[in-house]
Amino acid sequence: MSTTDGYKFIFLCGLHRSGTSPLFRTLREHREISGFRDTGVPEDEGQHLQTVFEPAKTYGGPGRFGFATEAHLTEESVLVTQENAQRLFSEWSKHWDLSRPWLLEKSPSNLIRTRFLQAVFPNSYFVVLTRHPIAASLATRKWADATPESLIEHWLHCHRLFQMDRPHLRHVHIVKFEDLIQSTNREMEKIYSFLNLNPKLSEPLNPAANEPYFSEWRRLSDDAKGRAQVHQIVSKYEGLTRAQGYSLANFGATPTASLVSH
User: Phi/psi of residue 112, each to 5°?
Assistant: First the structure.
């Protein structure tokens, strides 16, 4: 009998600055969920609390890690072994309350490692948080020496990898950050329903969280040099971001079947 039997695993997925930290803190307050806390590592992320796979910083960190081919892990990875499954659980379980049935972990690199995590922990549920690429990219600039164009390309690349992996996942729910901050409890009810858990009232999140970054994008557009840069980015990526449910030109979200959870 595996030591993981009897547990269900929640992996919170989303790139740096996608809003996963506040969602993680909200989920771990549920009485049936245990999530890491006070671990001493950045944002209590599981990637820093294990020795089985390389953390995102090995591949360049925020805004860069997804470009590394070896950062994308699936069930085909040589790391998928029973020994590694036991080691990963052993390392993470030091920070979980194992009296609770749901065990929660979040790391930005989870977005491109869902199939690997499902192979290691078959009873896995993935909650994927997406944020507008303008807001997520400009928010990431303080952590990454990269241009807005490069950061948006990274956003697109990682989300394309996830969309390729998604058909292989048994349990996945996608929530837009924009919906979460506008209607926190409604979106949290959907997440708890996906997990088959009783809902819990949540503290509302800042509904204007994206506005500083949209304002920065507008200021960039007002400058002659910046206007040319913005025009180039919009011309190159607008169709691709719209396919993911977001517009670079209108700062809005467009509905798409690819964002329906199952």
Answer: -110, 25
Query: Is-contact 62 101, C-beta < 8 A?
Result: no
Q: Where are the domains of the chain?
A: 8-213
Cβ-Cβ contacts under 8 Å for 10 (sequence gap 6 or more):
27, 33, 102, 103, 104, 105, 124, 125, 126, 127, 195
Helix (H) or strand (E) holding 26: helix 20-27
Q: What is the pLDDT of residues 106-164, one digit of tens each?
A: 999 999 999 999 999 999 999 999 999 999 999 999 889 899 999 999 999 999 999 99
Cα separation, 237 vs 241, whole angstroms:
6
Could you read off the pLDDT of 225-252 as tens digits, one per residue? 788 889 999 999 999 999 999 999 987 5
Helix/strand/coil for 79? coil
Which pTM does this prediction carry? 0.93
| CB within 8 Å of 27: residues ≥ 6 apart | 10, 12, 33, 35, 104, 127, 191
Which CATH entry fits the domain spanning 8-213: 2.40.40.20, 3.30.460.80, 3.40.50.300, 1.10.150.530?
3.40.50.300
